[in-house]
Design a protein that fits this description.
53% helix; elongated; three-stranded antiparallel beta sheet
Protein backbone atom coordinates (compact mmCIF):
# COMPACT_ATOMS: atom_id res chain seq x y z
CA UNK A 1 0.00 0.00 0.00
CA UNK A 2 2.89 2.35 0.71
CA UNK A 3 4.28 1.56 -2.73
CA UNK A 4 0.92 2.31 -4.34
CA UNK A 5 0.69 5.58 -2.45
CA UNK A 6 4.18 6.62 -3.57
CA UNK A 7 3.36 5.72 -7.15
CA UNK A 8 0.28 7.94 -7.09
CA UNK A 9 2.20 10.80 -5.46
CA UNK A 10 4.97 10.46 -8.04
CA UNK A 11 2.32 10.60 -10.75
CA UNK A 12 0.86 13.72 -9.15
CA UNK A 13 4.28 15.41 -9.09
CA UNK A 14 4.73 14.68 -12.79
CA UNK A 15 1.28 16.10 -13.51
CA UNK A 16 2.11 19.25 -11.54
CA UNK A 17 5.36 19.61 -13.47
CA UNK A 18 3.42 19.20 -16.73
CA UNK A 19 1.06 21.99 -15.64
CA UNK A 20 4.02 24.28 -14.95
CA UNK A 21 5.45 23.40 -18.36
CA UNK A 22 2.06 24.08 -19.96
CA UNK A 23 1.99 27.58 -18.45
CA UNK A 24 5.50 28.34 -19.71
CA UNK A 25 4.63 27.09 -23.20
CA UNK A 26 1.44 29.14 -23.15
CA UNK A 27 3.45 32.28 -22.37
CA UNK A 28 5.84 31.64 -25.23
CA UNK A 29 3.08 30.54 -27.61
CA UNK A 30 0.85 33.53 -26.94
CA UNK A 31 -2.22 31.47 -26.00
CA UNK A 32 -5.41 33.25 -25.04
CA UNK A 33 -6.05 33.29 -21.31
CA UNK A 34 -9.28 31.24 -21.65
CA UNK A 35 -7.32 28.47 -23.45
CA UNK A 36 -4.81 28.43 -20.59
CA UNK A 37 -7.64 28.38 -18.08
CA UNK A 38 -9.29 25.35 -19.71
CA UNK A 39 -6.01 23.47 -19.97
CA UNK A 40 -5.20 24.15 -16.32
CA UNK A 41 -8.62 23.00 -15.18
CA UNK A 42 -8.37 19.69 -17.07
CA UNK A 43 -4.91 19.15 -15.64
CA UNK A 44 -6.06 19.99 -12.12
CA UNK A 45 -8.83 17.39 -12.37
CA UNK A 46 -6.22 14.75 -13.30
CA UNK A 47 -3.98 15.96 -10.47
CA UNK A 48 -6.86 15.78 -8.01
CA UNK A 49 -7.64 12.20 -9.04
CA UNK A 50 -4.01 11.15 -8.50
CA UNK A 51 -3.88 12.79 -5.06
CA UNK A 52 -7.21 11.24 -4.05
CA UNK A 53 -5.89 7.84 -5.23
CA UNK A 54 -2.81 8.43 -3.08
CA UNK A 55 -5.03 9.10 -0.08
CA UNK A 56 -6.92 5.85 -0.70
CA UNK A 57 -3.74 3.84 -1.16
CA UNK A 58 -2.24 5.24 2.05
CA UNK A 59 -5.13 3.88 4.14
CA UNK A 60 -4.42 0.23 3.39
CA UNK A 61 -7.03 -2.44 2.77
CA UNK A 62 -8.82 -2.42 6.13
CA UNK A 63 -7.40 -5.78 7.26
CA UNK A 64 -8.01 -6.05 11.02
CA UNK A 65 -7.18 -9.73 11.34
CA UNK A 66 -9.12 -12.95 10.63
CA UNK A 67 -12.10 -11.81 12.70
CA UNK A 68 -13.53 -8.82 14.55
CA UNK A 69 -16.27 -8.27 17.13
CA UNK A 70 -19.19 -6.02 16.26
CA UNK A 71 -22.41 -5.67 18.30
CA UNK A 72 -21.66 -8.85 20.29
CA UNK A 73 -21.12 -10.80 17.06
CA UNK A 74 -17.99 -12.31 15.61
CA UNK A 75 -17.47 -11.40 11.98
CA UNK A 76 -15.08 -13.24 9.67
CA UNK A 77 -12.80 -11.58 7.16
CA UNK A 78 -13.48 -12.10 3.46
CA UNK A 79 -11.05 -14.28 1.51
CA UNK A 80 -9.91 -11.36 -0.60
CA UNK A 81 -10.50 -7.60 -0.64
CA UNK A 82 -13.88 -6.64 -2.12
CA UNK A 83 -13.90 -3.85 -4.66
CA UNK A 84 -16.13 -0.83 -4.26
CA UNK A 85 -16.91 1.87 -6.85
CA UNK A 86 -16.45 5.47 -5.75
CA UNK A 87 -17.29 8.27 -8.19
CA UNK A 88 -15.68 11.55 -7.14
CA UNK A 89 -15.62 14.97 -8.80
CA UNK A 90 -12.19 13.95 -10.15
CA UNK A 91 -13.45 10.74 -11.72
CA UNK A 92 -14.11 7.13 -10.78
CA UNK A 93 -11.97 5.15 -8.31
CA UNK A 94 -12.04 1.46 -7.42
CA UNK A 95 -11.46 0.89 -3.72
CA UNK A 96 -10.37 -2.61 -2.61
CA UNK A 97 -10.94 -3.35 1.07
CA UNK A 98 -11.68 -6.35 3.29
CA UNK A 99 -15.25 -6.98 4.39
CA UNK A 100 -16.23 -8.83 7.57
CA UNK A 101 -19.41 -10.94 7.70
CA UNK A 102 -20.99 -13.70 9.77
CA UNK A 103 -21.61 -15.90 6.75
CA UNK A 104 -20.36 -15.94 3.18
CA UNK A 105 -22.30 -13.80 0.65
CA UNK A 106 -23.86 -11.85 3.50
CA UNK A 107 -23.74 -8.08 3.65
CA UNK A 108 -21.11 -7.21 6.19
CA UNK A 109 -18.94 -4.54 7.69
CA UNK A 110 -16.00 -2.84 5.96
CA UNK A 111 -13.90 -1.00 8.56
CA UNK A 112 -12.44 1.32 5.94
CA UNK A 113 -15.91 2.47 4.86
CA UNK A 114 -16.59 3.74 8.37
CA UNK A 115 -13.09 5.18 8.75
CA UNK A 116 -13.46 7.25 5.58
CA UNK A 117 -17.14 7.97 6.01
CA UNK A 118 -18.03 6.63 2.57
CA UNK A 119 -21.59 7.39 1.40
CA UNK A 120 -24.29 4.76 1.03
CA UNK A 121 -24.17 4.95 -2.77
CA UNK A 122 -21.41 5.11 -5.37
CA UNK A 123 -21.29 8.89 -5.68
CA UNK A 124 -19.25 11.12 -3.40
CA UNK A 125 -21.12 13.61 -1.27
CA UNK A 126 -19.47 16.46 -3.18
CA UNK A 127 -20.61 15.02 -6.52
CA UNK A 128 -24.12 14.43 -5.17
CA UNK A 129 -24.26 18.03 -3.96
CA UNK A 130 -23.11 19.51 -7.27
CA UNK A 131 -25.30 17.24 -9.39
CA UNK A 132 -28.47 17.94 -7.41
CA UNK A 133 -27.78 21.67 -7.45
CA UNK A 134 -28.04 21.32 -11.23
CA UNK A 135 -31.05 18.98 -11.10
CA UNK A 136 -33.21 21.33 -9.01
CA UNK A 137 -32.75 23.98 -11.70
CA UNK A 138 -32.54 22.03 -14.96
CA UNK A 139 -33.91 18.82 -16.47
CA UNK A 140 -32.12 15.64 -15.38
CA UNK A 141 -30.66 15.01 -18.83
CA UNK A 142 -29.36 18.58 -19.09
CA UNK A 143 -27.89 18.37 -15.58
CA UNK A 144 -26.06 15.12 -16.29
CA UNK A 145 -24.81 16.58 -19.56
CA UNK A 146 -23.55 19.74 -17.83
CA UNK A 147 -21.72 17.66 -15.23
CA UNK A 148 -20.07 15.59 -17.97
CA UNK A 149 -19.06 18.73 -19.86
CA UNK A 150 -17.58 20.38 -16.78
CA UNK A 151 -15.93 17.46 -14.97
CA UNK A 152 -15.88 14.64 -17.48
CA UNK A 153 -17.88 12.51 -15.02
CA UNK A 154 -20.70 10.44 -16.52
CA UNK A 155 -23.89 9.99 -14.47
CA UNK A 156 -27.00 8.41 -15.97
CA UNK A 157 -30.35 10.19 -15.89
CA UNK A 158 -31.86 7.28 -13.97
CA UNK A 159 -29.12 7.55 -11.33
CA UNK A 160 -29.73 11.30 -10.99
CA UNK A 161 -33.50 10.75 -10.58
CA UNK A 162 -32.92 8.06 -7.95
CA UNK A 163 -30.47 10.26 -6.07
CA UNK A 164 -32.99 13.13 -5.90
CA UNK A 165 -35.53 10.79 -4.31
CA UNK A 166 -32.97 9.53 -1.80
CA UNK A 167 -31.95 13.05 -0.81
CA UNK A 168 -35.57 14.24 -0.62
CA UNK A 169 -36.26 11.71 2.14
CA UNK A 170 -34.22 13.96 4.45
CA UNK A 171 -36.06 17.21 3.67
CA UNK A 172 -38.93 16.87 6.15
CA UNK A 173 -36.76 15.89 9.16
CA UNK A 174 -34.32 18.68 8.23
CA UNK A 175 -37.10 21.27 8.16
CA UNK A 176 -38.51 19.99 11.46
CA UNK A 177 -35.18 20.77 13.13
CA UNK A 178 -34.84 24.32 11.83
CA UNK A 179 -35.20 27.03 14.49
CA UNK A 180 -37.61 29.90 13.84
CA UNK A 181 -36.17 33.26 12.77
CA UNK A 182 -34.97 35.57 15.51
CA UNK A 183 -37.82 37.72 16.79
CA UNK A 184 -35.77 40.89 16.23
CA UNK A 185 -35.53 40.06 12.52
CA UNK A 186 -39.27 39.60 12.00
CA UNK A 187 -41.80 42.08 10.63
CA UNK A 188 -44.94 43.28 12.38
CA UNK A 189 -47.38 41.07 10.44
CA UNK A 190 -47.30 37.36 9.61
CA UNK A 191 -48.53 36.48 6.14
CA UNK A 192 -49.60 33.08 4.81
CA UNK A 193 -50.52 32.70 1.17
CA UNK A 194 -51.62 29.73 -0.96
CA UNK A 195 -52.24 28.90 -4.58
CA UNK A 196 -52.44 25.87 -6.87
CA UNK A 197 -50.29 24.91 -9.87
CA UNK A 198 -50.83 21.90 -12.12
CA UNK A 199 -48.02 19.44 -12.84
CA UNK A 200 -48.18 17.16 -15.90
CA UNK A 201 -48.19 13.55 -14.70
CA UNK A 202 -47.43 10.27 -16.41
CA UNK A 203 -50.39 8.06 -17.02
CA UNK A 204 -50.20 4.79 -15.07
CA UNK A 205 -48.69 1.93 -17.05
CA UNK A 206 -51.93 -0.05 -17.07
CA UNK A 207 -53.75 2.87 -18.73
CA UNK A 208 -51.07 3.22 -21.39
CA UNK A 209 -51.22 -0.51 -22.15
CA UNK A 210 -55.02 -0.54 -22.20
CA UNK A 211 -55.34 2.44 -24.54
CA UNK A 212 -52.71 1.15 -26.95
CA UNK A 213 -50.06 3.12 -28.81
CA UNK A 214 -52.56 5.51 -30.41
CA UNK A 215 -54.83 7.71 -28.31
CA UNK A 216 -58.54 7.79 -28.98
CA UNK A 217 -60.27 11.01 -30.05
CA UNK A 218 -60.42 13.49 -27.18
CA UNK A 219 -58.03 11.45 -25.00
CA UNK A 220 -55.17 13.46 -23.50
CA UNK A 221 -51.61 12.24 -23.44
CA UNK A 222 -51.31 13.16 -19.76
CA UNK A 223 -53.22 14.65 -16.91
CA UNK A 224 -52.21 17.28 -14.41
CA UNK A 225 -52.14 16.95 -10.66
CA UNK A 226 -52.53 20.12 -8.66
CA UNK A 227 -49.69 21.06 -6.35
CA UNK A 228 -50.64 23.34 -3.45
CA UNK A 229 -48.01 26.06 -3.17
CA UNK A 230 -47.66 27.76 0.20
CA UNK A 231 -45.66 30.71 1.44
CA UNK A 232 -45.13 32.20 4.89
CA UNK A 233 -43.26 35.39 5.69
CA UNK A 234 -43.39 38.41 7.95
CA UNK A 235 -43.53 42.05 6.90
CA UNK A 236 -43.87 45.49 8.45
CA UNK A 237 -47.09 47.44 8.13
CA UNK A 238 -47.39 49.61 5.02
CA UNK A 239 -50.31 52.02 5.39
CA UNK A 240 -51.68 53.45 2.15
CA UNK A 241 -54.70 55.21 0.72
CA UNK A 242 -56.79 54.21 -2.28
CA UNK A 243 -54.96 56.83 -4.35
CA UNK A 244 -51.60 55.34 -3.38
CA UNK A 245 -52.68 51.94 -4.63
CA UNK A 246 -54.08 53.39 -7.85
CA UNK A 247 -50.82 55.22 -8.45
CA UNK A 248 -48.89 52.00 -7.84
CA UNK A 249 -51.12 50.00 -10.18
CA UNK A 250 -50.76 52.57 -12.95
CA UNK A 251 -47.09 53.53 -12.67
CA UNK A 252 -45.59 51.38 -9.92
CA UNK A 253 -43.84 54.47 -8.55
CA UNK A 254 -44.27 53.48 -4.91
CA UNK A 255 -42.88 49.98 -5.33
CA UNK A 256 -39.50 50.98 -3.84
CA UNK A 257 -41.23 52.23 -0.70
CA UNK A 258 -42.70 48.86 0.19
CA UNK A 259 -41.20 47.01 3.17
CA UNK A 260 -39.53 43.77 2.16
CA UNK A 261 -40.80 40.34 3.22
CA UNK A 262 -38.67 38.87 5.99
CA UNK A 263 -37.61 35.20 6.18
CA UNK A 264 -39.83 34.19 3.29
CA UNK A 265 -40.29 30.43 3.03
CA UNK A 266 -42.10 28.72 0.17
CA UNK A 267 -42.89 25.08 -0.52
CA UNK A 268 -45.34 22.87 -2.42
CA UNK A 269 -47.27 19.73 -1.55
CA UNK A 270 -48.78 16.99 -3.70
CA UNK A 271 -51.46 14.50 -2.73
CA UNK A 272 -49.69 11.14 -2.40
CA UNK A 273 -49.83 7.66 -0.94
CA UNK A 274 -47.60 6.69 1.96
CA UNK A 275 -47.72 3.25 3.55
CA UNK A 276 -51.18 2.69 2.11
CA UNK A 277 -52.64 6.00 3.33
CA UNK A 278 -53.56 9.00 1.17
CA UNK A 279 -52.18 12.35 2.27
CA UNK A 280 -53.97 15.38 0.83
CA UNK A 281 -51.51 17.92 -0.56
CA UNK A 282 -53.59 21.00 0.26
CA UNK A 283 -54.12 19.86 3.84
CA UNK A 284 -50.39 19.22 4.21
CA UNK A 285 -49.60 22.71 2.91
CA UNK A 286 -51.98 24.31 5.41
CA UNK A 287 -50.71 22.19 8.29
CA UNK A 288 -47.16 23.21 7.44
CA UNK A 289 -48.18 26.86 7.36
CA UNK A 290 -50.02 26.57 10.69
CA UNK A 291 -46.92 25.06 12.32
CA UNK A 292 -44.69 27.75 10.81
CA UNK A 293 -46.96 30.53 12.08
CA UNK A 294 -47.03 29.09 15.58
CA UNK A 295 -43.25 28.67 15.69
CA UNK A 296 -42.70 32.24 14.55
CA UNK A 297 -45.24 33.72 16.97
CA UNK A 298 -45.72 31.28 19.88
CA UNK A 299 -47.50 33.93 21.97
CA UNK A 300 -49.95 34.56 19.08
CA UNK A 301 -49.61 38.32 19.40
CA UNK A 302 -49.07 39.30 15.77
CA UNK A 303 -51.87 39.72 13.24
CA UNK A 304 -52.04 36.96 10.62
CA UNK A 305 -53.05 37.80 7.07
CA UNK A 306 -53.87 35.24 4.38
CA UNK A 307 -54.08 36.46 0.77
CA UNK A 308 -55.61 34.12 -1.85
CA UNK A 309 -57.27 34.23 -5.26
CA UNK A 310 -60.63 33.37 -3.69
CA UNK A 311 -60.77 29.65 -4.44
CA UNK A 312 -63.47 28.22 -2.19
CA UNK A 313 -61.43 25.20 -1.10
CA UNK A 314 -58.62 27.47 0.11
CA UNK A 315 -61.03 29.66 2.05
CA UNK A 316 -62.55 26.62 3.74
CA UNK A 317 -59.10 25.38 4.73
CA UNK A 318 -58.18 28.76 6.22
CA UNK A 319 -61.05 28.33 8.67
CA UNK A 320 -59.98 24.77 9.49
CA UNK A 321 -56.20 25.08 9.81
CA UNK A 322 -55.11 28.67 10.41
CA UNK A 323 -55.51 30.67 13.66
CA UNK A 324 -58.96 32.17 14.31
CA UNK A 325 -57.48 35.70 14.18
CA UNK A 326 -56.45 35.19 10.55
CA UNK A 327 -57.74 37.90 8.21
CA UNK A 328 -58.51 36.54 4.74
CA UNK A 329 -57.92 39.06 1.94
CA UNK A 330 -58.91 38.59 -1.68
CA UNK A 331 -55.90 39.34 -3.86
CA UNK A 332 -56.42 42.80 -5.36
CA UNK A 333 -54.87 41.76 -8.67
CA UNK A 334 -57.55 39.12 -9.19
CA UNK A 335 -60.16 41.76 -8.38
CA UNK A 336 -58.56 44.10 -10.91
CA UNK A 337 -58.44 41.37 -13.56
CA UNK A 338 -62.19 40.92 -13.32
CA UNK A 339 -62.77 44.66 -13.46
CA UNK A 340 -61.06 44.68 -16.84
CA UNK A 341 -63.27 41.81 -17.96
CA UNK A 342 -66.32 43.88 -16.99
CA UNK A 343 -64.93 46.96 -18.74
CA UNK A 344 -64.53 45.08 -22.02
CA UNK A 345 -68.19 44.17 -21.93
CA UNK A 346 -68.91 47.87 -22.61
CA UNK A 347 -65.77 49.40 -24.12
CA UNK A 348 -63.12 48.44 -26.66
CA UNK A 349 -60.00 46.74 -25.36
CA UNK A 350 -57.17 49.19 -24.75
CA UNK A 351 -59.45 52.22 -24.93
CA UNK A 352 -59.35 55.20 -22.57
CA UNK A 353 -63.01 54.57 -21.77
CA UNK A 354 -62.19 51.09 -20.50
CA UNK A 355 -59.33 52.50 -18.42
CA UNK A 356 -61.61 55.12 -16.89
CA UNK A 357 -64.23 52.44 -16.16
CA UNK A 358 -61.66 50.38 -14.25
CA UNK A 359 -60.05 53.30 -12.38
CA UNK A 360 -63.38 54.60 -11.11
CA UNK A 361 -64.56 51.24 -9.76
CA UNK A 362 -61.16 50.18 -8.39
CA UNK A 363 -61.01 53.44 -6.42
CA UNK A 364 -64.46 52.73 -4.95
CA UNK A 365 -63.51 49.15 -4.04
CA UNK A 366 -60.34 50.37 -2.30
CA UNK A 367 -62.45 52.90 -0.40
CA UNK A 368 -64.70 50.11 0.91
CA UNK A 369 -67.66 50.65 -1.41
CA UNK A 370 -67.93 47.02 -2.51
CA UNK A 371 -71.71 46.88 -2.29
CA UNK A 372 -72.03 50.01 -4.40
CA UNK A 373 -69.80 48.61 -7.14
CA UNK A 374 -71.74 45.33 -7.21
CA UNK A 375 -75.05 47.19 -7.34
CA UNK A 376 -73.85 49.40 -10.17
CA UNK A 377 -72.70 46.43 -12.22
CA UNK A 378 -76.07 44.74 -11.70
CA UNK A 379 -77.91 47.82 -12.93
CA UNK A 380 -75.67 47.97 -15.99
CA UNK A 381 -76.35 44.31 -16.68
CA UNK A 382 -80.07 45.12 -16.83
CA UNK A 383 -80.05 48.58 -18.41
CA UNK A 384 -77.49 47.84 -21.09
CA UNK A 385 -79.38 44.66 -22.07
CA UNK A 386 -76.21 42.63 -22.59
CA UNK A 387 -76.58 39.29 -24.33
CA UNK A 388 -74.49 36.29 -25.15
CA UNK A 389 -70.87 36.03 -23.98
CA UNK A 390 -70.70 39.57 -22.59
CA UNK A 391 -73.74 38.93 -20.39
CA UNK A 392 -72.18 35.71 -19.10
CA UNK A 393 -68.86 37.43 -18.35
CA UNK A 394 -70.45 40.29 -16.44
CA UNK A 395 -72.64 37.93 -14.42
CA UNK A 396 -69.50 35.94 -13.48
CA UNK A 397 -67.75 39.13 -12.35
CA UNK A 398 -70.73 40.15 -10.21
CA UNK A 399 -70.97 36.67 -8.70
CA UNK A 400 -67.23 36.66 -7.90
CA UNK A 401 -67.41 39.99 -6.06
CA UNK A 402 -70.63 39.06 -4.27
CA UNK A 403 -69.20 35.74 -3.04
CA UNK A 404 -66.04 37.39 -1.68
CA UNK A 405 -67.27 40.74 -0.39
CA UNK A 406 -66.30 39.74 3.19
CA UNK A 407 -62.68 39.50 2.02
CA UNK A 408 -62.75 42.80 0.10
CA UNK A 409 -62.67 45.32 2.97
CA UNK A 410 -59.74 47.09 1.41
CA UNK A 411 -60.26 50.39 3.21
CA UNK A 412 -59.70 48.58 6.52
CA UNK A 413 -56.77 46.54 5.19
CA UNK A 414 -54.97 49.60 3.81
CA UNK A 415 -55.52 51.55 7.05
CA UNK A 416 -54.06 48.61 9.03
CA UNK A 417 -51.04 48.38 6.71
CA UNK A 418 -51.85 44.85 5.52
CA UNK A 419 -50.62 43.48 2.19
CA UNK A 420 -53.45 43.04 -0.33
CA UNK A 421 -51.61 41.16 -3.09
CA UNK A 422 -50.45 37.54 -3.36
CA UNK A 423 -47.37 38.19 -5.45
CA UNK A 424 -45.18 36.02 -3.21
CA UNK A 425 -47.10 32.81 -3.79
CA UNK A 426 -47.76 33.57 -7.46
CA UNK A 427 -44.04 34.10 -7.89
CA UNK A 428 -43.48 30.80 -6.08
CA UNK A 429 -45.87 29.04 -8.46
CA UNK A 430 -43.67 30.19 -11.29
CA UNK A 431 -40.21 29.79 -9.73
CA UNK A 432 -40.87 26.71 -7.64
CA UNK A 433 -43.20 24.76 -9.92
CA UNK A 434 -43.58 26.01 -13.46
CA UNK A 435 -39.94 26.84 -14.27
CA UNK A 436 -38.83 23.30 -13.41
CA UNK A 437 -41.85 21.01 -13.66
CA UNK A 438 -43.60 22.20 -16.83
CA UNK A 439 -40.84 22.15 -19.42
CA UNK A 440 -41.53 20.77 -22.86
CA UNK A 441 -42.20 17.05 -22.81
CA UNK A 442 -41.88 16.63 -19.04
CA UNK A 443 -44.10 14.02 -17.38
CA UNK A 444 -43.78 13.15 -13.72
CA UNK A 445 -44.58 10.39 -11.29
CA UNK A 446 -45.84 11.53 -7.91
CA UNK A 447 -42.67 10.22 -6.24
CA UNK A 448 -40.36 12.02 -8.65
CA UNK A 449 -42.34 15.27 -8.61
CA UNK A 450 -42.47 15.41 -4.80
CA UNK A 451 -38.72 14.84 -4.59
CA UNK A 452 -37.83 17.70 -6.92
CA UNK A 453 -40.41 20.04 -5.35
CA UNK A 454 -38.99 19.37 -1.89
CA UNK A 455 -35.37 19.82 -2.97
CA UNK A 456 -36.17 22.88 -5.07
CA UNK A 457 -37.95 24.50 -2.12
CA UNK A 458 -34.87 23.95 0.05
CA UNK A 459 -32.72 25.50 -2.67
CA UNK A 460 -34.98 28.53 -3.24
CA UNK A 461 -35.27 29.11 0.52
CA UNK A 462 -31.44 29.42 0.68
CA UNK A 463 -31.12 26.39 2.95
CA UNK A 464 -29.22 24.16 0.52
CA UNK A 465 -25.81 23.98 2.20
CA UNK A 466 -27.32 23.46 5.67
CA UNK A 467 -29.53 20.74 4.22
CA UNK A 468 -26.60 18.97 2.51
CA UNK A 469 -24.64 19.01 5.77
CA UNK A 470 -27.65 17.66 7.68
CA UNK A 471 -28.23 14.91 5.14
CA UNK A 472 -24.58 13.78 5.24
CA UNK A 473 -24.60 13.70 9.02
CA UNK A 474 -27.88 11.76 9.13
CA UNK A 475 -26.64 9.17 6.62
CA UNK A 476 -23.30 8.77 8.38
CA UNK A 477 -25.07 8.22 11.69
CA UNK A 478 -27.36 5.61 10.12
CA UNK A 479 -24.50 3.82 8.35
CA UNK A 480 -21.81 3.88 10.99
CA UNK A 481 -23.56 5.06 14.15
CA UNK A 482 -21.26 8.05 14.40
CA UNK A 483 -21.64 11.72 13.69
CA UNK A 484 -19.98 13.10 10.59
CA UNK A 485 -16.81 15.04 11.27
Amino acid sequence: MIMAKEQELLKARKQLAELEKFVEQSVRGGRRIDEVERGLFEGLLELGRSLLSAFVAAQGDGDQGPSIRRAEKTLQRSEAPAERRYVSIFGELRIARYVYTQRAKQKGCAPLDAQWGLPAGDFSYVLEDWLQRLCVREAFAESCGSLADLLGVQVSVRAAEHLSQVMAQHVEPFQAKQPPPAAAEEGEILVATFDGKGIPMRRPLEERVRSGPRRRKGEKANQKQMACVAGVYSIDRFRRTAEDVLDEVRRRQRRDERPLPQHKRVWAELTHLHEGETYNGRALAFIGAAIELLQRDPQEQKPVVCVTDGERALIDDIAVWLPPRTVHILDIMHVLERLWQAAYCFHAEGSRAAEAFVDHRLRRLLQGQVGGVIGGLRRMLTVQALTGEKRRVLRDVIRYYDNHRESMRYDQYLAAGYPIGSGVVEGACRHLVKDRMERTGMRWTVLGARAILQLRAVYLNDDWQDFVNYRIEAEQTALYRKRAA
